[in-house]
Give the backbone structure.
Amino acid sequence: MLSLRPFRLLVLLAASLAAACSSILPDKPVRPTLYDFGPGVVAAGVAPGNLTQPPILLAEVDVSSTFEGTPIMYRLGYADANQVRPYSLARWSAPPAQLVRQRIREHLGRDRLVLDNEEAAALVRSGGAKPRVLRIELEEFTHYFESQAKSFGLVRLRCTLLDNTSAGERLVAQRTITLQSPAASPDASGGVRALAAATDEAAQEVARWLQGQR
């Protein structure tokens, strides 16, 4: 009669090798959490006849290489404010320039038509006047920590208003808008909400500034 001992040894050896291999395999990668600014203010559309301000062409938002991607960036002001650091497990759903432009467009659209290049060209072809151009540069967009417990969302926009003439663009006015909003928690989630609030305030300030230009 054949002994089963060698077979049992082989089974035990195979089980030991499988356990060893599973212990050295890397864990399933953790996907970063995606954030945006939320749905914004849900309001009924404004009829063209109720718009009180002239149309404006809102150009794509310019941004430095620091804020081109989707990482959510923060600064430790109490340690080294010159260093910009990314949260490892948190990302924006789209580049900050797109999120900021969309929120500014929503605010400006409450009292005027906000156009892109194609829409502005269509307006001119239909006999309308060339709209002014609003160019915005996103200079700062970080979760800024004054201390380990106190932080805020910091947004800085450089706004340039230009007349769109047959000879080219002509400078009308320029302004830098800096807004900060306190963060409820010292983490990525708190930073996102603070940056969304600061962006809303900055967009409102852009709208007020444009209303004062003639």
